[in-house]
């Protein structure tokens, strides 16, 4: 039974975390997300050869008119907060490409009930925006950084931007947005040789490094199981160099298994959705830049909230709609099972 004032699914999970993609556009072309570069094509070539009419280069952005305005996003957050959502993460696409994003942050930060406001970014534009975002109320930030080698960084992201991202991490720490998180997607044969260097970076720079398994969410549908460096393999590699201590958490919905170096500096997290799914405790929903609600990263159906927002729907109607959509949240993903079908849209559209 749907309970008033909460977002509950039919499996008894209470949702507290709303991830909002504020644009589907991006200034990077990461191999695991928008594999449109020559380097990415070369890597996946064998796979692409099997895809009918697949031309991942032909990525189409959503027209501006399809993208939710700041007012529309803030209204959704207000309604969601009245239903028990506490955490908001702004993502994309690249959220820092959205003009005046700090105004959106300021608007959301004022909404009663929102206790945690975070952003995931590739960091390239953060030096221009960092102070304004912090002043607007952004509490936490995660940067994507898959390589500490300039050439490999460029190969993986399509952009010669390592220096800018490193500067962004330093700046976020200086601005007091600690602990700064860093996300690294590890692809076997591309950056797995950097696992130890990335771990050392976490220890040396006192950041929280999240090693993420490569998921089937790339726009070319080129993902293959064999590309995935599993969490336990990554952990074994780091443990052969460092004496790690497990960090216990009473937050059941936390996606990362966390480890410390035992020296009070830096932390590692293993996010292993492919090899060790954490669906049972998932308390997240997603809102895409074009106003669709997704109840799972791997949903194959989306729910059109935008048309409700742009009709005369009252807040009560939005509440009833959100509750009915959340009720349908999938019990788990089916990666690795014969019937698994990857979502049509890539991570850049869904919002990671
Ligand atoms: N552009 C921003 C960024 O890269 O941080 C925010 C959006 S990005 C889609 C959010 C996160 O999703 C990033 O940390 C990225 O590494 C991760 N991601 C994208 N595609 C992925 C995939 N196929 N498997 C695992 N993680 C992925
Ligand atoms: Fe852009 Fe982020 Fe996707 Fe990379 S992971 S292509 S930075 S949206």
Can you walk through the features of this model?
By secondary structure, the protein is α/β, with parallel strands linked by helices. The chain has a single domain, classed as TIM Barrel (Alpha-Beta Barrel). The protein has eleven helices and twelve strands. The radius of gyration is 20 Å and the shape is globular. The structure holds S-adenosylmethionine and iron/sulfur cluster. The site of S-adenosylmethionine (SAM) has 20 residues, from strand 3, strand 5 and helix 11.
Q: What does the secondary structure layout of this molecule look like, with pairings?
A:
Blueprint: E1 17-21, H1 38-48, H2 70-82, E2 87-91, H3 101-109, E3 116-121, H4 126-136, E4 140-144, H5 150-157, H6 162-174, E5 181-186, H7 195-205, E6 208-213, H8 231-239, E7 245-247, E8 257-260, E9 267-271, E10 284-287, E11 292-294, E12 303-304, H9 305-309, H10 315-327, H11 347-350
Bound molecules: S-adenosylmethionine and iron/sulfur cluster.
Residues 26, 28-30, 33-34, 92-94, 122, 144, 347-348 line the site of iron/sulfur cluster (SF4).
- Strand order, largest beta sheet: 7-8-9-6-5-4-3-2-1-10-11-12
Report the CATH superfamily. Aldolase class I
Q: What name does CATH use for the topology? A: TIM Barrel
Low-confidence stretches: none
Strand percentage: 15-25%
Q: What is the string of helix and strand elements?
A: EHHEHEHEHHEHEHEEEEEEHHH
Mean pLDDT: 92
Total number of β-strand segments? Answer: 12
Q: Under the CATH scheme, which class? A: Alpha Beta
Distance between the termini: 30 Å
What's the helical proportion of residues?
25-40%
The SS-based structural class is alpha/beta
What's the CATH architecture name? Alpha-Beta Barrel
Radius of gyration: 20 Å
Largest sheet: 12 strands, mixed
Q: State the domain count.
A: 1
Number of helices: 11
Characterize the overall form: globular
